[in-house]
Amino acid sequence: MAAWLSEKSVTVLAVLVALVAVGAPLLTGNTGRLAIATGTSSLPFDFSVTNVNVPEPQYSYYPVRGITATFRNTGPISFGFVNYKMEISSSKGHYYRDGVGTVTLPARGSASAEMPAVHDLPAGEYNVKVTIDYLGEHSETDESNNAFTTKLVIKG
After folding, report:
1. pTM
2. Which residues contact 70 (CB under 8 A, 6 or more apart)?
3. What domains does the chain contain, in order, with CATH numbers?
4. pLDDT per residue as tens digits for the range 28-40
5. Strands, E, within the chain: which ranges?
6. Which helix (H) or strand (E) holds 28?
């Protein structure tokens, strides 16, 4: 180690470098975009909803619980607080409930989230649609795979 640098100075310098590396993207609002001298270039990443699991049976006299969505991130960077939305509508097109949340997606990995419980749904057939990045905050390589729809049957 150079004589003019103390061990404490090196530690402080390392902490500052780490704070800049982690904090700069958060402070500048850089959510998955890489600034290059010639302009701004999107990183190659894509979010998707790969599955929505609805446990059966579900009954009208109990809250609907346990609906779990699985999300995927194909990109080389982890993303925190990625928004998602769950919508429940009847097979006849009547809209019933929605819920929103956020999920942390690891780089080149998957994560699951359990949807909030839904109360007071009458017996019948419903569509459950889960959409990742429903606010469109991230520019992805494929926006067409951000939603997944499955059936929910509630017995009387």
Report:
1. 0.72
2. 49, 50, 51, 52, 53, 110, 111, 112
3. 7-40 (no CATH), 44-155 (2.60.40.10)
4. 344 444 332 333 3
5. 33-36, 39-42, 47-53, 58-59, 68-73, 79-90, 95-105, 109-114, 124-132, 147-155
6. helix 7-28
